Amino acid sequence: MTRPVASDRSAGFMLVEVVIALAIAALVFGFAFRALSGAFDRLGKDQNSMTALVLAESTLDRVGHDIALNSPESSGSTKDGFSWLVQSAPYTDDRIASAGPLMGYVVRVTVLWKERSNTRQVQLTTLRLAYRERDS
What we know:
By secondary structure, the protein is an alpha+beta fold. The chain has one helix at 15-62; strands spanning 73-77, 83-90, 102-115, 118-131.
């Protein structure tokens, strides 16, 4: 009995095949890394947007309590890089501006923050009612 002799070609992988396989693996890992790093970057931006929205809502809730409703502008900032601005102005609709004991105020809260070199913002606007100030 004779044993079949294996040819040199089927004895193993050629160097060119190994290099091509490594190049393909490097491309796959590169695309996967880019996709994952982009997802983490978007996750950080979403977290900042959510923090800014919560800050805007809580600042809007403070208007009329510890932030005066009839002051035209008030501002502040947080330790983590967010700044807020509250703008308040009387609501001017001629049909209802002079009627009744209540007066409307348009209140706008703007929260600003930096992401890399871009300035981003969230802005909320509402209408608040308050008793008119009595003239003496």
